[in-house]
Amino acid sequence: MSDYTLKSFAESGNAYKAALMLALCKADWQAEWVDFFKGATRADDYRKLNAMGEVPVLVDHTQDDRVLSQTGVILLHLADRHDKFVPGNRADELEMLRWMFFDNHKLTSYVATYRFMSRFMKKEGEPETEFLKGRGMSALKVLDGHLSNRDWIATNQATLADLSCCGYLFWPDHIGVSWDDYPGIKNWLSRIQNLENWQPPEALLPTGPQT
Ligand SMILES: N[C@@H](CCC(=O)N[C@@H](CS)C(=O)NCC(=O)O)C(=O)O
């Protein structure tokens, strides 16, 4: 058995954050496909595992099958286990956490939900979808401005903040943007792609029917 199982699916940028961390840490892990589009996360057995009904879930087999959810928590747990992507001092760590909270509240939350509504629910142009798009694009502008004069989000090296914020950003066509309009993000994504062992979501995670 692998050290970790990641309950996931390839269309989930949230799952990708954890999968990317596992890949970059060269961890011994396996993905287990969750049939999200058929409602698997709403089923009783899944809710017993994660009462929040969300993907991803990480099971750490090296720690008595400990179950973790919320990407921020999963990333922090993996950083503890592999001693990677967390700065060595508290001030930098707080800066990293600041951007991870921003990601969870303002960036991924809107960008991912906009993508879900437009691409998978086919509700492009409807008022709720346009609202999500506006909020998501505002968050992208904040991130782009922050990256205009620096290589990485929190320190002078990649941290969990970078892995968290990039979750959905390797799908610019899915969120209706061109990174040419966001040069800070464009250059930063290239730097992430150059990290040793980087792979795109579809190479790391399993997929299935999207209905
Ligand atoms: N804040 C959560 C977000 C996870 C999330 O929204 N996952 C999506 C799939 S990408 C999900 O399972 N959504 C189900 C739902 O919201 O009911 C995290 O960081 O893990």
Separate helix tally? 8
Rounded average pLDDT: 98
Termini distance?
Answer: 31 Å
Q: What small molecules does this complex bind?
A: glutathione
Note the run of SSEs as H and E. EHEHEEHHHHHH
Any low-confidence stretches, pLDDT <50, length ≥5? none
What characterizes the major β-sheet? 4 strands, mixed
Strand content: 5-15%
Query: What is the CATH fold-level name of the largest domain?
Result: Glutathione S-transferase Yfyf (Class Pi), Chain A, domain 2
In total, how many beta strands?
4
Rg over CA atoms, rounded to whole Å, is 17 Å
Assembly type of the chains comes to: single chain
Could you say how many structural domains there are in total? 2
Shape: globular
- The helix content, as a percent range, equals 40-55%
CATH top level assignment of the largest domain: Mainly Alpha
Structural class call reads alpha+beta
Under the CATH scheme, which architecture of the largest domain would be assigned?
Up-down Bundle
Spatial sequence of strands, sheet with the most strands: 2-1-3-4
List the helices and strands and how they pair.
Blueprint: E1 4-8, H1 13-24, E2 29-33, H2 44-49, E3 57-60, E4 66-69, H3 71-82, H4 90-120, H5 127-146, H6 160-165, H7 183-193, H8 201-204
Parallel strand pairs: 1-2
Antiparallel strand pairs: 1-3, 3-4
This protein binds glutathione.
